[in-house]
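User: structure tokens for this one?
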Amino acid sequence: MSRAEQREQTRRTLLRESRRLFTAKGYGAVGLSQIVNAAGVTKGALYHHFDGKAALFRAVLAQVQEEVGRRVAATADAEPDLWDQLVAGCHAFLTASADPDVQRIMLIDAPAVLGWNEWRALDEAASARHLSDALTHLIEAGVIARQPVAPLVRLLSGAMNEAALWLATSADPGDLADTKAALTRMLESLRG
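Assistant:
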């Protein structure tokens, strides 16, 4: 194995083990020594790849956001109709957000660790573009009344993020289905 391959393997191992620990215990309860012990590397190896625990967390968050984005896009793209793509994508986001791994990292710890402004910027970069594209296509197709897209994206994104945060604290398994139904009714009100 080349040095580049070893470095990449070390980076992947650090990401995998820190993600596992952050999910199980939460960011605040995980120390660097736990991460390097679980990964079987030295602190020097960790600092070779990341500036510290917060930088490692950002990389884990980016990985989680990318996975959620892929799941949402794949679900939406499976639908032939533009409207059905929007609804399916929004439902897929809520479903993905119900995953405890996603909840802990993306919805609970990320705003606390990174601060609200950085978390919002990363969330917007990860998902707002897709929602904006979907809404723009629906407006151009005449499915949704012509209107500025930017505020609509923020309203829908905020509603879905808030619903996902609520679902993260909910113990009722029926709440996900109820939330999807409420979201569908809200989306239906946009149709022209």
